[in-house]
Amino acid sequence: MSFNRDVKNELKNVVPSARHCQLAEIAAILSICGIVSISTYDTYEIEVRTENSAVADKYNKLLRRCFHIVPRVLVRGHSTNRKVHTYIQTIDDNEEAIKILKATKLMGHDGDIKEQLLVNDKVLIQRSCCKRAFLRGCFLATGSITDPEKGYHFEIVANDSEKAEQIKALINGFLLDAKIVVRKNYYVVYLKEGAQIVDALNIMEAHKGLMELENIRVMKEMRNKVNRRVNCETANINKTVSAAVRQLEDIRYIKEHKGFSNLSESLRQMAELRLREPDAPLKDLGQMLNPPVGKSGVNHRLRKLSNIANELRKSNGDI
Q: Residue 181 contacts by C-beta under 8 Å, 6 or more apart in sequence?
């Protein structure tokens, strides 16, 4: 089972106790998945279509809790994919439909249906708990979250710009940084940072998914930190080895073409010690000298030897 499906199944079972929160979540599902039809006799019918069983189950559960209404359910198979089903839930009783539409503020007092089923009544999503419920309903309806082992991406898809802006504003009201991108004919509200996706799951009360994502995120950060440290140490080792090889080449060139007799006592001592201890780090070499010197002192003497070797190469035409 995918991480996205696990999160949605968890959210399916998060049913708020307060009626105002239940209404906010129903309004979100209707706004995104709902279709309102008006017959020639001016009777209303509400239909919710979804291919996600978690959305269908949650919508059904909320209608029972909030209105004691049971929608008529029809499940249709996909023409080419047997694993895909479309869940169609219909409320064809006029009084029940009007009751739901008015309670969710999708119908005004004058009987007009809000254009695009946009929930623009601030009373419905004024409380923080109702905002959480509304976002939970939106995510259940058209949201998705990438497996955190593969990457960090959270999104909710809206079919028009106003709904997308509303969802974005609600998410950012919790101090997040959601953005909108247009994909084909849809508007996608998304988050890309792991820490912000953790916060989004917390907002929607997907605590089990939150803990799983956080554990994966911590493990990935630890692995990345270890890899960076190993890479850094490997680079330092390679740098040290390369430097030691160059030092040995320079000292051997001096010994072969000039000898150590013309070197100062300190440089001669340094050259002989480096030949005896080809793998020793600079700090250890400094402690072996008499008198001992620090790492910077050793480095200074080795640079002088390198300069002498380069001068010899020039004079001998080896450069």
A: 187, 188, 190
Phi/psi class of residue 259: alpha, beta or left (left: φ > 0; alpha: ψ in -120 to 50)? left
28 and 114 share one domain: yes
Listed residues 180, 205, 230: the one ending a domain: 205
Question: Cα–Cα distance between 251 and 314 in angstroms, integer?
Answer: 15
Sheet strand arrangement including 154-158: 143-145, 154-158, 186-191, 179-183
The pLDDT value recorded for residue 108 is 75
User: How many folded domains does the chain comprise?
Assistant: 2
The Cβ of residue 49 has, within 10 Å, a number of other Cβ atoms equal to: 16
Give the span between the Cα atoms of 7 and 4, in whole angstroms.
5
Tokens 């695009």 label which residue? 116
To which residue do tokens 């007009």 refer?
A: 112
Tell whether 24 is covered by a domain: yes
Is 136 found in the same domain as 73? yes
Instruction: In whole angstroms, give the CA distance from residue 197 to residue 262.
Output: 69
Structure token digits, residue 43: 């009777």
Question: Which one-letter DSSP state was computed for residue 114?
Answer: P
Q: Which domain holds residue 15?
A: 3-205
Burial class of residue 182, CB neighbours in 10 A (0-12, 13-18, 19+): exposed
Same domain, 235 and 274: yes
Give the global pTM. Answer: 0.71
Residues lower than pLDDT 70 in the chain? 1, 79, 114-115, 120-121, 319
List phi, psi (to 5°) of 187.
Answer: -110, 120
Residue with tokens 């930190």: 225
* 166 alpha carbon, distance to own chain's centre: 22
